[in-house]
Amino acid sequence: SSGINAEYGYKEVVRKGYEKDFVVPGCKVVCHVTGSVKDTGRVFWCTKDGTPFTYTAGIGSLIEGWEEGCIGMSEGEISKIVMSSKKGYGKIGNRSWNIPGHTDLEFEIEILAVR
Fold first, then answer.
1. 3-class secondary-structure state, position 90
2. Residue 115: CB partners within 8 Å, gap ≥ 6?
3. Separation between Cα atoms, residue 5 and residue 113, nearest integer Å
């Protein structure tokens, strides 16, 4: 189950992980990401052809829907996380990725490593 309140989005497991080395607050996570605008499918971020994204889980450095959706994922897992703008970039949006305010988002996240 995802940590996302159903009112604000959902998580769908695309491929189960190895069921060990789970994402928990404070761990370092290495992942591949494809981020898109839910309504149009426009991809605004994709790491698959380049360097994976690394972050520290659960410290509030990323948007809320991402943080909530990734907690509990295991190494090797691929999940689609869909979130309302309330759990994404809110009413302000994200100028650098040309995401207007009040935009629902979809991320496909593959957990490559949990440290």
1. coil
2. 27, 28, 29, 30
3. 26
Nearest alpha carbon to residue 109 among 3, 15, 1: 15
State pLDDT tens for residues 11-51.
999 999 999 999 999 999 999 999 999 999 999 999 999 99
Q: How far apart are CA 17 and CA 92, in angstroms?
A: 34
| Global confidence as pTM | 0.92
How many angstroms separate the CA atoms of 99 and 14, rounded? 25
- Helix-strand-coil split of the chain, %, nearest 5: 10, 40, 50
CA distance readout (Å), 100 to 54, 85, 91: 25, 10, 8
Q: How many CB atoms lie within 10 A of CB 65?
A: 29
Query: How do residues 50-91 score in pLDDT, each as one tens digit?
Result: 999 999 999 999 999 999 999 999 999 999 999 999 999 999
